[in-house]
From TrEMBL:
<feature type="region of interest" description="Disordered">
    <location>
        <begin position="357"/>
        <end position="377"/>
    </location>
</feature>
<dbReference type="InterPro" id="IPR010994">
    <property type="entry name" value="RuvA_2-like"/>
</dbReference>
<dbReference type="Pfam" id="PF12836">
    <property type="entry name" value="HHH_3"/>
</dbReference>
<dbReference type="GO" id="GO:0015627">
    <property type="term" value="C:type II protein secretion system complex"/>
</dbReference>
<dbReference type="InterPro" id="IPR051675">
    <property type="entry name" value="Endo/Exo/Phosphatase_dom_1"/>
</dbReference>
<protein>
    <submittedName>
        <fullName>Helix-hairpin-helix domain-containing protein</fullName>
    </submittedName>
</protein>
<dbReference type="GO" id="GO:0015628">
    <property type="term" value="P:protein secretion by the type II secretion system"/>
</dbReference>
<feature type="compositionally biased region" description="Polar residues">
    <location>
        <begin position="368"/>
        <end position="377"/>
    </location>
</feature>
Length: 377
């Protein structure tokens, strides 16, 4: 062999034979591994088939079932152990669907087991009973027993409670009387703490305040201070603050109906209040729409930011207006908005003597006036 190959060729041949041997060895080992995997797979299939053949379905409670029973139901050892660990952690199966949340539980297996799951009464989920419901079911309803006639306008909360009302009910009735007023049977029945059956018992004993012979003096809302407003039945402390703040923003009220725009005044209270108040529109602080600075216009409830921007932009270009009708024609206000804002507006036209003479002679001074307004703005 030494005669046929050189030293270099012999080394190459040895390297080739070594690599070929390693390749053949790898093939041999791979075949053996495939055979072993195939054997293991066959074994598992046989075992699985044997297990499926031995599955016995029966009713069971997942809160008490044992490992052996779980295996007979078709669970693998891992699934059975997972369910037992779930239970050991303090978890309770309240409904059958809780079994599906166990680690390793497949949808197909749960679908098979679901018809056989029975939750014991000790573990089953019960509908919650509100404490108030339980207390009312045990306690007899309070009996309202008037003893003698009483004046509803001066009676105390303690006396109301002595009739059979709870302390909280008595305090609520007194608060209602002080804020809204109880002047007749209709007012008594309107009180939210007095049901009709109780009102029937109270009516023969209640003495209502006597109506004054003279007509009550109305409160003028544009000049009234907080004390005067507080004297109006239906206006509480929060409502007083809200009315004064809204009056300041508006510049005064021109109608008592504007009180309905205040969120703190409810519809029922409004109906009571309007009978006790009046409105002098002469007290309104008017705005010179042609020359008022933006700071004087900003914040008025009837001039929201969108309208105010349009108004200021148009005024800068046009100079001013003579009436609310022109504001409508310029698409700054709708007719409804113009009617609501009109009592607060004043349209001043600052003119030179020559322009005033033109106006007297019947000459239109619209362009001159507009430019003059623009110059003075």
């Amino acid at each position: 062999m030494a005669g046929f190959f050189s030293s270099r060729e012999r080394r190459a041949l040895l390297l080739f034979l070594s690599l070929a041997g390693l390749f053949l060895l790898g093939l041999l080992l791979g075949q053996r591994r495939e055979q072993r995997l195939a054997t293991d797979k066959s074994t598992r299939l046989v075992e699985a088939k044997a297990e499926s053949d031995s599955v016995i379905l029966f009713e069971f409670d997942p809160n008490t079932v044992e490992y052996g029973d779980l295996r007979r139901l078709g669970l693998t050892s891992q699934q059975a152990v997972s369910l037992l660990k779930y239970r050991a952690a303090g978890k309770v199966f309240r409904i059958p669907e809780d079994v599906a949340t166990c680690y390793g539980m497949t949808d197909s297996l749960y679908f098979v087991l679901a018809p056989y799951i029975r939750i014991g009464e000790a573990y089953a989920l019960r509908p919650a009973v509100h404490p108030a419901t339980r207390s009312y079911s045990r306690r007899e309803p309070r009996r309202i027993v008037p003893r003698e006639p009483f004046r509803v306008d001066t009676v105390s909360a303690e006396y109301i409670a002595s009739l059979g009302f709870s302390t909280r009910q008595a305090e609520a009735i007194i608060l209602y009387r002080d804020l809204i007023g109880i002047r007749d049977e209709e007012d008594l029945r309107a009180c939210y703490m007095i049901v009709d059956t109780v009102a029937d018992l109270l009516v023969p004993y209640v003495i209502y305040p006597e109506e004054s012979a003279s007509a009550p003096q109305l409160v003028e809302i544009n000049r009234a201070d907080s004390a005067a407003l507080r004297s109006v039945v239906g206006i509480g402390e929060k409502s007083v603050v809200a009315i004064l703040a809204y009056r300041e923003r508006l510049g005064g009220f021109y109608s008592v109906d504007q009180l309905a725009e205040i969120p703190q005044i409810t519809e029922s209270n409004f109906e009571r209040i309007v009978k006790q108040i009046c409105c002098d529109s002469c007290e309104i602080q008017k705005i010179d729409i042609n020359f008022a600075p933006p700071s004087a216009l900003k914040g008025h409830p009837y001039l929201p930011p969108v309208i105010l921007r349009k108004l200021l932009s148009k005024r800068q270009l046009k100079g001013g207006w003579r009436s609310t009708e022109e504001l409508v024609e310029d698409n700054i206000l709708t007719r409804t908005e113009a009617a609501r804002l009109a009592p607060y507006l004043r349209f001043t036209l600052r003119q030179t003597p020559i322009e005033a003479q033109k106006r007297e002679d019947g000459w239109p001074a619209r362009q001159d006036t507009a430019s003059n307004v623009n110059k003075n703005d």
